[in-house]
Design goal:
The chain is an all-alpha fold. The protein has five helices and no strands.
Length: 145
């Protein structure tokens, strides 16, 4: 790939479109199978929102280097899983939804969206014109002499 086709910013709009389409499609299919439908829709919304929130560190720090992109992705993954697990607890304890329905909905929506996120970050890393690491300038011994 030549230098003019390489990019340095993460395509958050394309990632949002893919995540939205996948969450909608998976929720529509699951609503035909799982009752109550409100549980599926709510979980799809939570996973979709947490996925978008988890991708924002990649947008912010992805311009620095490939390693900062990976660190940002894993930091976002931590945010995503904490939000999803908090939603599971609220749905089971506060909203009194069946636990098996909530957990099945979580996994059925979470895994396809996780796959899409990984593919989008992979595509960015392979096509981005970024350094491997961020070089920090530290004064060496010759600078003080």
């Amino acid at each position: 790939m030549d230098q003019q086709t390489k990019k340095t910013t993460f395509a958050f709009g394309r990632c949002t479109l893919w995540l939205t389409c996948a969450a909608t499609l998976v929720a529509a299919i699951l609503s035909l199978i799982i009752e109550p439908v409100s549980c599926v829709g709510l979980m799809a919304g939570v996973v979709w929102g947490s996925s978008l929130m988890g991708m924002t560190p990649v947008v912010w720090f992805g311009k620095l280097s490939i390693m900062s992109t990976l660190y940002a992705y894993f930091a976002g993954a931590g945010v995503r899983i904490v939000l999803c697990l908090a939603a599971v607890v609220v749905m089971i304890k506060v909203m009194n939804m069946p636990a098996h329905t909530v957990v099945i909905s979580l996994m059925a929506v979470y895994l396809p969206l996780l796959f899409i996120e990984v593919q989008q970050v992979r595509r960015f890393i392979l096509t981005a014109d970024l350094p491997t690491t961020v070089r920090q300038s530290k004064p060496g011994p010759e600078a003080s002499a």
